[in-house]
Amino acid sequence: MATATAPRQRAPRPAPQPSRRPPRLRSRLARFWHQYTRMRTAIYMLMGVLGIVLIGTFVPQQFSSSQGKVSEFLGSHAALNDLASHLGLPLTSVFVSPLFYILLGSIYVALLSCVLTRGRALIVRTVRGYPRSPQYWGEWGSWLFHTSFFLLLVAVVWGKATGFDGIMTITEGQRVAETRASYDTLQEGMLFDGRHSGYEVQLNRFAAPLQANGMPEDFVSNVTVYDAGRPVVTKDVRVNDFLGYDNVDFYQQDYGWAPHIVVKNPSGEVVSDSAAQLISDDKTASTGVIKVPDFNYRMPGQSKPTQIGARLVLYPDAQALPSVGGAGNALNLTYGPGSAAPNNPVLQVQLFVGDLGINGGASQDVFSLDTTGMTPYYQNAAAFALPLHQSVTLQLPAANNGTANFTIAFADLKQFSLFHVKKDSGVPLVYATFVLTMVGLLTKLYLRPFLERRRRARRATLVPAAVTRSLPEPPPPRVREEVLTR
Amino acid sequence: MTPTPLSLTLFGIAVAIYIAALVGFLVYLPFRDRRIATTAVGLVVLGWPFHVASILTRALEAGHWPLGNIYEYSTGISFVVVTTFLVITLRAGQRLLGVPAMIVAIALMAVAYMLYVPPGDLVPALHSYWLTIHVTSMATASGLLVFSSLFAMFFLVREWADGYALAAASGSSSLRGVSAGAGGAAVMTGGGGGGGAEGGFLPGLASAFRRLPAAATLDSWSFRFVMIGFPVWTFGVMMGAVWGEHAWGRYWGWDPKETFSFIVWVVFAIYLHARVTYGWKGRRAALITVIGFVAIFADLYAVNLWIAGLHSYARA
């Protein structure tokens, strides 16, 4: 990118050093470098970036599109994607592809060369006291503009490398420490020192008031930060108002329902007493699972203790579906989704009994239930309905052909907040480069023409009127006078 | 049935007047009667306050800065286009610009109408003053950069017309208005002197297009609008980054809308570099701004309507 205004001829090196490389190779390298740092090459590289980025807009991407769309694309264009992947451009992750990084890297190397060459030339001009022409200031503007992009890269990389980025979910009433173990997903930068702040965040309340049309009007998490056990900050976190404490920022990203379910085993012992976080797209129906590994009961004839688990569907505003047989009680009704408001919360519970498969050490997904070692509680894995504040008593086989009762209660309906949590110390630097970019751009595009115009105007006033009249017509100050009015 | 909001009524009046103005500009094209052009410009001047009033009443009805969905945004860009056209035509008399400018303005308003949503609350993500700064700069920059492309398109047809006249002149030396001896240079700066004597569609078209300002002038106007629009676009993208950081905790995420705004930025950055370094003027520069034009509208509509992303709320 250096060619624009940099001196065309490179200043000869002060003392030509004897090189070990054969001269031909050296001149070839020099020629390559010259071609590489030309503006033309930079433009071609930018066009390459444009091409990749265009692919990224039209092909669903791993990190910004839904997983379903990505798999759908991969399913229908497998061969094409294979070919592209071999060329370093996996189509569903072009923004993190090798080819994209190589291209960006090449542009930045050329940019750095440009910035250094031009910067040196400008400093030489300044030191030697060349006249401060409008063009001189334009050069500085251009230099600043290009340098700011280099600084931007530094700021971005440094910020990401020394920080982290994760997702944390907190249920109402829950207090979670900012430590590695508390995250659902977490990506730490390569230079991150591994020290999380350790303070605790409690979600006091969550509210998502709805508009008349059923869309959320706002969503607000009221949180309190406890540092060393003492409350230090209480704040309403919403989409455009994040919580920042000790260089870690919490952003409201999503929310969901968290039904509080209490399970008692046949001995009457409370074996599960927690809120399950459910996920959903539109909040009128949410899905999730509950797992009770420590049920503390062994069915007769079984070698292992019995575990129970269930798939859950929550309708916050359940609508009873019409059924031919009528309904004896609420538990036998079938429900469908209504609105997103918690007018009639009902859980549909699809219960399984057996082995959850946790003890094998396999990784466990909190949103799915592996039923390979389990038997459905009801035939055909039928689900039963459990309205809020109600409980259901169910039977398991007991010794001597008897039955043992256990209960599942829908004790409370809470909400949880999903926070995007991150530490990125590069952000202020990024903003600083924005300012530099604008200053450079405006200097280049406006200050220089402004100075030129002022200089022209000053010259015009210095020339006596009589002289002006005798002089030939000055060239028209571009554009406006050329415009033909008709 | 809810009553039609006042903003929509005013919107309709503005569009109707603009359409009348466009008809005027189209009639002016073959008849060359100055009074027709003056009337058409007068109609635009008449429609403009209705346009402004429509935007203001919409803001009052909705209770927020009126750039919160695609209806409001399209209306806003259309407003920038009409206003810029008025400034150009009243200061520099570019009346022929009325044809493409009004076509773009009316098309934007037609799309706005098709995607109309009644005034209402914003989704939570849009409750921010960064929204105001970001979308206002983006709408302004879009409107300004559109003019760089319009002038570039004018340049292309003018250049074609000049070439056509030159070819005709070298073919038959009797053609009036072209000095054969002076060659291309005379044609480039020749203004509206060209023929019109001979019949036929192409010669007529060429002579009509030769009434446009000189190709070099159009080229320089196109460049000026890149010079004005590019920094505003840059600023708007940056403000979008600040808003993204503020709302979602990331200043850049390759969301389709962000990506497309980056594409537009790179296209015009290439334009500036090619022009400043290689002195790319004329046809090649014009083609780049035409690509920019396509990219701006792809960014505006294609991304919102067909590609889902974090900016999809702008659909409703």
Tell me what you see in this structure.
- The complex is a heterodimer of chains A (486) and B (316).
- Chain A has 486 residues and is α+β, with helices and mostly antiparallel strands.
- Chain A is 32% helix and 27% strand.
- Chain A is built from eight helices and 18 strands.
- Chain A has helices at 23-36, 39-58, 67-76, 78-86, 98-127, 134-162, 427-462, 465-470, and strands at 164-171, 175-177, 185-188, 200-207, 220-227, 230-238, 243-245, 248-264, 270-275, 286-292, 307-315, 319-320, 335-336, 346-354, 374-376, 384-387, 391-397, 403-423.
- In chain A, the strands form four sheets. In chain A, strands 1, 3, 7, 8, 9, 17 and 18 form a seven-stranded antiparallel β-sheet that branches.
- In chain A, a hairpin with a 5-residue loop joins strand 17 (391-397) and strand 18 (403-423).
- In chain A, helix 2 (39-58) runs antiparallel to helix 5, helix 5 packs across helix 6 (134-162) and helix 6 (134-162) packs antiparallel against helix 7.
- The longest helix of chain A has 36 residues, at 427-462.
- The relative contact order of chain A is 0.11.
- Residues 1-11 and 473-486 of chain A have low confidence and may be disordered.
- Chain B has helices spanning 6-31, 34-62, 70-92, 98-114, 129-171, 183-188, 201-209, 215-248, 256-278, 282-306.
- Chain B has ten helices and no strands.
- At the A-B interface, helix 2, strand 8, strand 18 and helix 7 of A face helix 8 and helix 9 of B.
In short:
Chain A has 486 residues and is an alpha+beta fold. Chain A has helices at residues 23-36, 39-58, 67-76, 78-86, 98-127, 134-162, 427-462, 465-470, and strands spanning 164-171, 175-177, 185-188, 200-207, 220-227, 230-238, 243-245, 248-264, 270-275, 286-292, 307-315, 319-320, 335-336, 346-354, 374-376, 384-387, 391-397, 403-423.
